[in-house]
Design goal:
It holds the Pfam family Cyclase. This protein has six helices and twelve strands. It is α/β, with parallel strands linked by helices. A hairpin with a 5-residue loop joins strand 2 and strand 3. It starts with a helix and ends with a strand.
């Protein structure tokens, strides 16, 4: 009687070990992710539009209090549109959403990067074309994904901090506007994205989605008129793949704001 019982228990043990081994083999390994900050910091070096005042950080109290603990607090003053920031649709659309009205779905999700450095760095007035967008699709073997966030890399992030190279001028005021030179998205390419693709947002590593010499800001009008927010002065000097990453782009929630400082982070799936 003992032998059959021992054989039964031994079979149960072997079966249990086999099931555990199969579960171990089939269990997927945890995915690795890396967070990359795509925001320039805010300081006296921050790039603002030539008609806007520069960022100001005023030191408040720094030191030991009478109760014995250390305390620090500052105040700052900044225009909505400067440094790494967001353009809300109301910026160029009378009926557009303000910063606080933007759906979070527009600001976070799967993203792609379109690299135009080779051409854009050859011309400070380069206009990113439909052909540039379609070339990315040809290289990746599929269209721009639905509801993607598009980042346009011109290579200009490396000039950030050098206003002459980044903006085209070191001057300030209305007269300096005509001296601006940097790449941007061609209006016909912006219209193509609106008509032919379904995107959530567009970001660029220059001061404006429209190139420096624009006077009618048509790409702004086209994109923001369709409730597509724009990220400007994005720090794309950080290495990103062409796709396979997510973006989280959360602005300061300014009620009624036409724009706001932006903290934008890429989550790369490795």
């Amino acid at each position: 009687m003992k032998t059959p019982l021992l054989l039964f228990l031994l079979c149960c043990l072997l079966l249990s070990c086999q099931v555990e081994e199969e579960e171990t083999i089939q269990k997927p390994s945890p995915s690795k992710e890396k967070l990359v900050d795509l925001s320039h910091d805010f300081s006296k070096e921050t790039v603002y539009w030539v008609t806007e005042p520069d960022f100001q950080l005023d030191s408040g109290f720094h030191g030991e209090t009478e109760k014995g603990y250390y305390y620090a607090a500052n105040s700052f003053c900044a225009a909505e549109h400067g440094g790494t920031h967001i353009d809300a649709p109301i910026h160029f659309s009378k009926t557009g959403q303000t910063v606080d009205q933007l759906p979070l779905e527009k600001l976070a999700g799967p993203a792609i990067k379109i690299d135009i450095k080779e051409r854009a760095l050859q011309s400070p007035d380069y206009l990113i074309s439909i052909e540039d967008l379609m070339q990315w699709e040809s290289q990746q073997g599929h269209p721009i994904p639905d509801q993607a966030i598009i980042l346009l890399e011109t290579g200009y992030a490396k000039y950030y901090g050098d206003k002459k190279k980044y903006l085209g001028t070191i001057n300030k005021g209305p007269e300096a506007v005509k001296e601006l030179h940097f790449p941007g998205l061609a209006p016909e390419a912006a219209q193509w994205l609106v008509d032919e693709r379904n995107i959530n947002a567009v970001g660029i590593d220059t001061p404006s989605i429209d190139y420096g010499q624009s006077t009618h800001f048509q790409s702004h009008v086209i994109l923001l008129g369709q409730q597509i927010p724009v990220f400007e002065n994005v720090n794309l000097s950080m290495k990103l793949p062409a796709e396979g990453f997510d973006i989280m782009a959360f602005p300061m929630k300014i009620k009624g704001g036409s724009g706001a400082p932006l903290r934008i982070v890429a989550r790369i799936r490795e």
